[in-house]
Specification:
Structural class: alpha/beta
Number of domains: 1
Oligomer: single chain
Number of helices: 11
Shape: globular
Low-confidence stretches: 290-295
């Protein structure tokens, strides 16, 4: 659907719901001085997720060293790491009673290991307090295999790294990232660890259908088992504009094509994000049985 400034199609209109449970989640996170990608990335699902008693934790502060033109997270010079952050996240997981935890982070190119050891510390801290499934959504760590290995050695259950868009648009959308480097990170996770590998991307940025299908084939070749596809929504006039609103039926087609390619699970829809309904996506994959060799 063509984009008309200031207007959204019917399928992207959503009523914002507040609840005492959502307020309690916000207050608890604030009290523990924890950041979430839900809030920092202006996620359209933030109110729904908080009201359901869940959130996606944002490690290593709220300032990113990269300048992706689709992302609402602030860019600049980050603060030093907080050594007690993993323990505070584990405390939040315990208080919320989470059965499925999603950990993500800003990109920290200022750190020698890109923050990989901090990811590992957070995984271990959660393991000491909870039996929850742990899903990590990591940056590319500058392509450092040792850094990726540090996270994998901490034994998360799901390793997610998003490619975000088709390779032709990388220079425009995420100029400091490298498509082939992201594929290599995903392939390493598939080869090195006994876990499920996951990735996701946005549509509506000007990509062509064949480019999308080629991207999906590349992800499958890298061993990705779980795929998420969602509509790009511009966080502000300073960010990249939306080129097209993709109708729900096109997402249904992409999901069917992804399953035919051999992905174990494909979540595709206008409001789909990597961590949105992550527990439900994972459990549905397990209940339906693996459609692919997830290794």
């Amino acid at each position: 659907m063509p984009v008309e400034k200031g207007k959204f199609p019917p399928w992207l209109r959503r009523r914002i719901v507040h609840s005492p449970k959502g307020d309690a989640v916000r207050n608890m996170l604030s009290g523990l001085h924890l950041e979430t990608v839900c809030r920092n990335a202006h996620c359209p699902n933030v109110h729904e997720c908080y009201c359901r008693g869940t959130a996606t934790f944002l490690l290593m502060g709220s300032v990113c060293t990269r300048h992706c033109r689709f992302c609402a997270v602030a860019s600049g010079e980050p603060a030093p790491l907080e050594g007690d952050e993993p323990a505070r996240i584990a405390e939040a997981v315990a208080r919320l009673g989470l059965r499925h935890v999603v950990l993500t982070s800003v990109t920290r190119d200022d750190l020698a290991d890109g923050g990989a050891a901090h990811f590992a510390a957070a995984i271990r801290a959660i393991r000491s307090r909870s039996a929850a499934i742990i899903e990590v959504l990591t940056p590319d760590f500058g392509g450092q295999r040792d850094a990726v290995a540090t996270v994998l050695d901490a034994r998360p259950d799901i390793f997610n790294h998003n490619v975000e868009t088709v390779p032709r648009l990388y220079r425009t959308v995420r100029p400091e990232a490298v498509y082939e480097r992201s594929l290599a990170v995903l392939a390493q996770a598939t080869e090195q660890a006994d876990l499920h590998t996951k990735s996701g991307f946005m549509v509506g940025l000007g990509e062509a259908r064949e480019e999308v299908l080629s991207l999906m084939r590349d992800l499958r070749a890298a061993g990705v088992a779980i795929l998420t596809i969602g509509q790009y929504l511009s966080p502000s006039p300073a960010h990249l504009p939306v080129e097209r609103f993709v109708p729900p039926e096109e997402f249904d087609t992409l999901r069917a094509q992804g399953l035919a390619m051999g992905f174990a699970m494909v979540a595709a829809g206008p409001f789909v994000r990597s961590s949105y309904n992550a527990e439900e996506v994972y459990q549905q994959m397990l209940s339906e049985g693996s459609r692919c060799d997830t290794k």
